[in-house]
Write a structure and sequence with these properties.
This protein is mainly alpha-helical. The protein has helices at residues 3-16, 24-41, 47-56, 58-72, 78-101, 104-111. The two termini are 29 Å apart.
């Protein structure tokens, strides 16, 4: 059993416990989690890279870039503000192309220092 299957099984246990005390929305949310984690549990080898490279996560990735930009925005002097605006433009441009330049495997290897 891998971690994803363990998580799916935990959600199943959660669903069985006190189901009559849960709202329909809570029940549906738990069922969605079970479905996703059971699917992830079937992934082997490079499947996660294929899933990421499919483009399904591109807009989410770009959203994270936007959140990073918002976190580093500076409301100080005009020179620093101008520099951050240039950085923001570069990050936006790069986030639109980086997903096409590198595979998910390349990014994973870079993150874990396997390059």
């Amino acid at each position: 059993m891998n971690g994803y299957q363990f998580t799916a099984d935990t959600y199943k246990t959660l669903l069985e416990k006190d189901q009559d005390k849960r709202t329909q929305k809570e029940i549906e949310e738990i069922k969605q989690n079970i479905k996703v984690f059971e699917t992830l549990a079937t992934f082997e080898g490079d499947d996660k890279y294929i899933a990421f490279d499919s483009g399904m996560f591109n807009d989410i990735f770009k959203g994270y870039i936007e959140l990073i930009i918002k976190e580093i925005e500076y409301n100080g002097d005009e020179k620093k503000k101008a520099a951050l605006q240039l950085l923001k433009a570069d990050l936006n441009r790069l986030s639109n192309t980086i997903l096409d330049l590198y595979s998910a495997k390349n990014a994973d290897d870079e993150f874990y220092g396997r390059r």
